[in-house]
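Example 3.2
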Amino acid sequence: MSLSTATNIAQSALNAVSAQTQVLTRNIAGANDTGTFNTKIANVATTTNGGAQVVSVTRVQNQTLFDNVLNATASSAAQTAISDGLTQLETTVGATSDGSASQSPSTLLSNFTNALQSYQASPSDSALADAAVSSAQALAQSLNSATSTVQGVREQADASMSQSVTQINSLLQQFQTVNAQIINGTATGADVTDMEDSRDSILTQLSQQIGITTVTNSNGGMNIYTDSGVTLFQGTARTVTFTPTTTYASGTTGNAVTVDGVPITGSGSTMPIQSGALAGLANLRDNVAVTYQSQLDSIAGNLISAFAETDQSGGGGATQPGLFTTSGATGMPASDTGLAGTIEVNASVDPNQGGNALLLRDGGISDPSGTAYTYNTSGDASYNGRLNQLLSNLSATATFDSTGDIGTSNTLSDYATASVSWLEAQRSDVSSAGTYQSTLLSQATTALSNTTGVNIDSQMSQMLQLENSYQASAKLMSTIHTMFGTLLYSMGVSSTT
């Protein structure tokens, strides 16, 4: 081997060690990176003259584990969105630390029934009449308040969906930029590992908003699809659109999120997304809250029906709302939709509005100036026939809307109790699912980190090996320099010339 060849080999070794050291330094610096950082590897190859050089830099990668992290992130985000909404809805039942539900429609219905029974036992006692009407007001107000909370949850979910869509579009644009850089860098043989880390970070953030799957192309680029198969990115970012609905009422249907016109949320979607915060928010807004609102409306509708008054004169007058009605009502409601938000105690029986609480015993609440709807025609102070009838109506089996999802035939009291139980079951199920998904995410993240993350001990060990290699190469260079000096001296040439 000639001295010049030896020099080239030693020099290439020094260069290779220097390049490898730079990669190790990047790894050590990235060990505490809170984002997605994969261990980088400097790939060394032998040159034609027997030297060495770093021909490429790649990163440790495990696509299966990374996909698991994306899936777990999306599922956990969906459960969190629903759980947060259910926590707000649970305030409508006034759950306390001891498990009671003092402000729930179920409890207030029970209180009202007890007050009515007390009045039925002493129908001449005006104080008991006032107490029964006051209890009815509390019940109506609890339904109003619950409806306000439900629609507030829907409005908040809708607003959060809008924010999520904005975030998705922003991340897709960021992804498009980085993805193009990776494709160009791959084509020229450049080191694209840091850009691949950035792309993974964007995908992780995107999966928090919407469930995704990815496909890597031969050119280093990547396509993104929703977990239901709708294309989000294929060469260019697709447009995700959503029109917010600022005000919600019972019966309001929120707008769907679309990708290039294809709905991915809502009942009209043929490819609805299954995970991510966006999916959880849509489920909360369009299903969970709507079902609970239907239950509240059914309770209100049956209350109005149970206390409705019929024409006692035989004149064939239409049935009219009695104790419970809605503002400006001229007859019985056509449907239950929205009744929980508008139900109130009839002013004619409310002492606070100038009404007469004794009409609860006598009838004529719907027409206090007439006699057609009066049940106590004799004016007997001990008359309790109407009160008996009202209590019987409360305990009778009634029909409820199937959209409430807790049966269509039940007593009003049992249905109201079932509504509270349904809400608690929803919260418990989502909480359990959320804990499970959170555990899966933690395990998936740990598994990925253990496989692709930086091991400081390993990196420092390699750094020591490179230091030894550098010293050996440097010593070889020094030896070669000495040999060149000796050769030149033997030839009569000064090494300083």
